[in-house]
Amino acid sequence: MLDERRLQANLRVPVDGIIGAGTLTALFAKMGAAPAIAAELGLAANVHFRTYGILDTGLRLAHFMGQCSHESGGFRYMEEIASGAAYEGRADLGNTQPGDGRRYKGRGPIQLTGRSNARFYGRKCGIDFETRPDLMAVPSIGILTACMYWDQKGLNAYADRDEGTAIGNGINRGNPKSDKQPNGAADRIERTALAKKIIL
Q1: How many Å separate Cα 133 from the centre of its chain?
Q2: Into how many domains does the chain fold?
Q3: What is the pLDDT of residues 32-49, one digit of tens each?
Q4: What pLDDT is attached to residue 42?
Q5: Where does 57-186 show beta strands of DSSP type E?
Q6: pTM of this prediction?
């Protein structure tokens, strides 16, 4: 279970035991988001975290926050800093047309990457990300795609078992059952530990 009052006390927000946009905004800010981004993420997360079961337990919330904090540089970057040229020609990402690497570079808190992901998650939520991948960099839309991706990969189950490496591989390699270490493993562990300290 999620201890709502403990989380609110740790965030130094009003302790009423009811997680809402205000508490989540404070959590995103504590994890590094600038005020405007934190507020937009908090508002949207108050809806989508419930839909995708991320608020059901403290471990789910902590792992989600820690992993996405790694991917987005503390929720500061909703679009990958690199050009995306490294993704050019990556058929595994659906990048089959010239310019796809740059066009479909990572966006949103989970840094959703590739034409295939843009098409799949766009169709899932009814927004044409394949034509307008820039929309995934809007924080309130990006947090939705992050939750959808998290759900699609079944990462709540790994969070319930506190399996951070599997979650990192689910995000970074697209396969939580990979036996390799995800890129940025040490930073993922550190950011998840911070999230646990705030939430658990």
Answers
A1: 16
A2: 2
A3: 999 999 999 999 999 999
A4: 98
A5: none
A6: 0.97
